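In the design runs reported in the main text, the only information available to the sequence generator was the tokenized backbone. The following block is the verbatim input for one such run; it is reproduced so that readers can re-run the procedure and compare outputs position by position.
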């Protein structure tokens, strides 16, 4: 399904760094549209204040939601009013000159322009029939919510099926509460598992007097309500 492919790209069944031209061409041939975890951009971010804010808003929105991938160098089909539809049309590529420097500048912008800081996002360039597509991976963040702090903006963004949107105050409050709730749930989960293991409830014999426990938990809610 289309959603499965987007999830695969975001969760890196094909990790950023291992994506090939075949995956990108498949997006176009199947007409897979933008969504919560996928966005197309024709051009690389410019140097104006508006361009920088737009780039940071895109990155923070993905980090604050489910993570995702941004592909630079791909045009979108237009509707009757000339507006982008979110459906990929063609690969136009981005300028190859100093692409490494561009990538480093984008990483630095994320480090300097968001609060709290977002770890440096993975990037790769993919040659698609002689045209370069820049792939930017944005993982879902354990430290969310992140605000755009460029020019002291202080705005928060998330993504939905229509793209990014600014977060309203009530939703922002819930985002902070969910972060605290996840930490509490994770600690409760850890304590419960240790107690059951040491008491023998799991049926596993624990050798030695100082066992080491490793817990693997999903990022976000441990249960849904």
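Verbatim output:
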């Amino acid at each position: 399904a289309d959603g499965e492919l987007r999830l695969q790209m975001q969760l890196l069944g094909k990790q950023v760094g291992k994506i090939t031209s075949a995956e990108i061409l498949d997006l176009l041939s199947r007409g897979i549209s933008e969504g919560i975890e996928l966005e197309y951009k024709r051009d690389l971010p410019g140097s104006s204040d508006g361009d920088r804010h737009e780039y940071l808003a895109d990155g923070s929105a993905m980090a604050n939601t489910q993570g995702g991938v941004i592909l630079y160098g791909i045009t979108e089909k237009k509707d009757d009013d000339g507006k982008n539809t979110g459906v990929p049309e063609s690969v136009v590529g981005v300028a190859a000159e100093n692409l490494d420097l561009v990538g480093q500048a984008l990483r630095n912008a994320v480090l300097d322009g968001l609060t709290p800081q977002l770890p440096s996002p993975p990037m790769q360039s993919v040659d698609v029939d002689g045209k370069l597509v820049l792939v930017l991976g944005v993982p879902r963040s354990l430290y969310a919510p992140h605000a755009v702090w460029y020019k002291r903006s202080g705005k928060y963004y998330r993504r939905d099926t229509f793209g990014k949107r600014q977060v309203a105050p009530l939703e922002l409050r819930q985002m902070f509460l969910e972060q605290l709730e996840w930490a509490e749930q994770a600690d409760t989960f850890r304590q419960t598992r240790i107690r059951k293991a040491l008491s023998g409830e799991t049926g596993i014999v624990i050798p030695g007097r100082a066992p080491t426990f490793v817990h693997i938990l999903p990022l976000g809610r441990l249960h849904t309500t």
